[in-house]
Structure formats: structure tokens, C-alpha cells
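Quick one, probably user error.
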């Protein structure tokens, strides 16, 4: 038999066409999972925020997969711990990019977000931050989006409340030097309306848990200037410990915190020392919104604890990413898809992005801790 003729026999041609079609069809209709990254601090002093965010994203992915995933493809979540450390975060993002993730949910802190944006831009991989509030990333044409508004509005709200209620006039400030991009911006946003309204800042102390100073020593330094109030800008754990030391020396001095501290961990660790402490925050623990109530129930059923604001914002961020991936057209960048959609359904209302990936500000409320609960006072 002629070998050349055999190569072009009808059977061979049918087989070749079938193989080519199968390869093409498989490439166009892949059943491989869509990889999604999560970046957050899930170890160390701010692990409660990163863990709550991680668990909320896991819940969101489970729900999407149960409903068929993204156009028939399951979502695979790849989790990275940034330890709230810039260099660690940059390395983690590079590892996620190398794993060909479709997008990243996170990070959950400002210091990490600022550090990873160059990597996101270089790779054109979108990240949607959960609790990142630094204004340093506002108005930038980059690949970073966020679902919560900047610290500026919440710090302004706190300052106006202290002045209007005549709660504090002469204050001392302590802030975490390990997260300068958040803390310094928060303080500057608080300072202007506070001083304009007649307030006075007597002392500013930055601290870092690695510098060897005890919370007792920091507390004594704050109280030495005899303030009528103390502002603490720090994570929930450090805020709780510092409140305890302040209360030991002066049980009556007023204390207010930044929104960063407003988690259940603050109440758990602070105990009686955080009773009466105020915080500004836009998140509503008791929102009657049906999507939020359904999310809260599912989260508590699965993890046996409240999601708090970290879980709330991380879930919203994951919903934005997965909704955009489900809508994305062939050949379209995810950034373009998100911007073209513009408005997404959130747990407590609409999430509306501007051209730079920032959300429209919402009204922040002032809450006070009473009987281990965040209660609205204004």
C-alpha cells in the first residue's frame, strides 16, 4: 500500500479534523478552575482583620461555586499571608501573578496596598482591596480598586463630633508607626477640623510594638500632658492594650479610636477598659438589609463568629471581582470590565466606582462601646 496515500485516507483526515476541533473547542471552553488570589494579614497582631477577610472571601467563593461558578468554571482560591509587611506582600503578589490568578481580593491594610500597586500595574492584574482607606491611592489610574472609602471622611467625622459634643478639647494622640500611610493620613484628616473648631493637640506619640516600649510607658507619656481626651490610631489589639494601661492610671479620661480598631477583637481584649470609647465608622452591624442579614447568618453558621467590618468589606470585594469575571468579554481586561459596570450590588447598598477605582463616600456614624456592643450615638 502506498504510504503517502494512507496518510491522506478519509479515516486519517476525519481523525485530524476531530483532534484540531477538540483542541480548539477545549481552549475556548476550558473547564479548568479560575484562580482567584486573596491577600491579607492572617498572622501577627492584625490577624483578626485578615482572617475575617479570608473567611468572608472563602464563603463568597463557595457560594459562587455552588451556583455553577464563573460560566461553568469553578473558582479556586489561593490564599497568601502578607503579615502586614510591605516586602512580604510584594513577594506574595508576585507568587499570585506567577500562578496566573485572574484577580486578587485584598489587601486589607493601607501599608500593603501602597507597596503592591507597582506590581499590579506592571502585570495588569486587578486587586480589589477590602479595608484599605489611605488617600495616597486616590485619583490614580492604576489596577487597584477598593470597596470602602478613605479614612479622610471618618477622621473628619470624629473630629467634628468631639468638637460639637464638647467631649474633648485638649487631646494627646498615639498612633502605630508600623502603618504610617494610614495613621499619618488619618491624623492629618482629624487635625484640621479639630483645631479649626477650637481643639488643641498637646502631644503626638508614635509607637511600634518592635521598639521595646511597653504600653504602660506609652500611656504614662500620653497622660503626662494632662489631656481631657486621648486619640488612639492603631489596630484592635494594640488599641485594647493601650486603653487598659490608660484606664489603670486615669479611669475618667475620654478615649476615642480610629475606625481601624472597630472589631469584636477590640471588645474581647479590652473588656471594661474600652467601655465608653468612641469610634467613627460607616459599617452598620445591625443593618436590616436582606443581603447583609443573609451573609451574616451564613458567616456565623460557618465560622461561629461575627464577620464584623473586615468580613463585610472583603465579601463585597469578592463579589465585585466575581461579578466582573462573570461579565467580562473575551479579550477585555478586567479593569475595563469593572469600570464599564460601574455600580455593583453590595451587602448594605450599591458600590459605585469612579474612574479611578475609588468608591463614593458614605456617611460615617459615631459609635460608643456600651455593654460590649457598638452603639450609635450620632
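Nope, works fine. Designed sequence:
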Amino acid at each position: 500500500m502506498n504510504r503517502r496515500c494512507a496518510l491522506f485516507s478519509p479515516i486519517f483526515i476525519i481523525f485530524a479534523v476531530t483532534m484540531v476541533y477538540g483542541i480548539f473547542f477545549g481552549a475556548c471552553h476550558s473547564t479548568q478552575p479560575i484562580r482567584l488570589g486573596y491577600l491579607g494579614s492572617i498572622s501577627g497582631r492584625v490577624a483578626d482583620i485578615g482572617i475575617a477577610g479570608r473567611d468572608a472571601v472563602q464563603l463568597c467563593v463557595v457560594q459562587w461555586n455552588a451556583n455553577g461558578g464563573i460560566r461553568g468554571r469553578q473558582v479556586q482560591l489561593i490564599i497568601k499571608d502578607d503579615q502586614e509587611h510591605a516586602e512580604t506582600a510584594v513577594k506574595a503578589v508576585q507568587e499570585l501573578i506567577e500562578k496566573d490568578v485572574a484577580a486578587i481580593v485584598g489587601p486589607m491594610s493601607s501599608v500593603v496596598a501602597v507597596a503592591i500597586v507597582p506590581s499590579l500595574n506592571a502585570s495588569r492584574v486587578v486587586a480589589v482591596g477590602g479595608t484599605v482607606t489611605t488617600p495616597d491611592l486616590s485619583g490614580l489610574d492604576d489596577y487597584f480598586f477598593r470597596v470602602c472609602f478613605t479614612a479622610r471622611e471618618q477622621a473628619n467625622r470624629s473630629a467634628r463630633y468631639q468638637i460639637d459634643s464638647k467631649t474633648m478639647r485638649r487631646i494627646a494622640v498615639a498612633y502605630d508607626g508600623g502603618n504610617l500611610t494610614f495613621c499619618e493620613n488619618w491624623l492629618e484628616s482629624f487635625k484640621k477640623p479639630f483645631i479649626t473648631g477650637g481643639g488643641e493637640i498637646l502631644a503626638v506619640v508614635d509607637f511600634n510594638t518592635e521598639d521595646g516600649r511597653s504600653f504602660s510607658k506609652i500611656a504614662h507619656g500620653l497622660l503626662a500632658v494632662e489631656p481631657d481626651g486621648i486619640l488612639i490610631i492603631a489596630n484592635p489589639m494594640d488599641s485594647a492594650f493601650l486603653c487598659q494601661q490608660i484606664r489603670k492610671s486615669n479611669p475618667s479620661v475620654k478615649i476615642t479610636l480610629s475606625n481601624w480598631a472597630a472589631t469584636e477583637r477590640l471588645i474581647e481584649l479590652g473588656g471594661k477598659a474600652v467601655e465608653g470609647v468612641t469610634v467613627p465608622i460607616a459599617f452598620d452591624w445591625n443593618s436590616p438589609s436582606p443581603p447583609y442579614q443573609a451573609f451574616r447568618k451564613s458567616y456565623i453558621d460557618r465560622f461561629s463568629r461575627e464577620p464584623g467590618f473586615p468580613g463585610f468589606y472583603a465579601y463585597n470585594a469578592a463579589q465585585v471581582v466575581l461579578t466582573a469575571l462573570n461579565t467580562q468579554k473575551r479579550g477585555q481586561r478586567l479593569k475595563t470590565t469593572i469600570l464599564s459596570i460601574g455600580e455593583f450590588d453590595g451587602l448594605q447598598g450599591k458600590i459605585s466606582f469612579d474612574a479611578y477605582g475609588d468608591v463614593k463616600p458614605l456617611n460615617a456614624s459615631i459609635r460608643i462601646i456600651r455593654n460590649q456592643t457598638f452603639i450609635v450615638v450620632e
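The chain has two domains: 34-149+287-352, 152-281.
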